[in-house]
Design goal:
Elements: H1 5-11, H2 22-40, E1 44-45, E2 59-60, H3 63-78, H4 95-99
Parallel strand pairs: 1-2
Helix pairs in contact: 2-3
Length: 107
Amino acid sequence: MLLTLEEIKEHCRLEADFDEEDSVLDLIGRAVQQRTETYLNRKLYPYEAKIPPEDKDGICLTDDIKIAMLLLASHYYLNRTASSDFEKSDLPMGFIWNVQPYRIIPL
């Protein structure tokens, strides 16, 4: 998993020693990475990692992709139901805005 549990907790403003939901946060971290890789049509690798030569579309984690993943992780953590009583809207600098430049669209 590219996001650490500590990074997710810090972004969600949870205390580092709060461990009651670590399994949920771990699941969220893995789901966020999968969702990001699926959207980008690219495999993500750790920052400055050596990308295998056979993975021509692989990309190292950039700061803006990491921020997008943290935004998505906090969204998943704070919104655990399919619907809500409140109207929600996308933030201008949300997930798509940050990762779109790296997306490969197969033709």
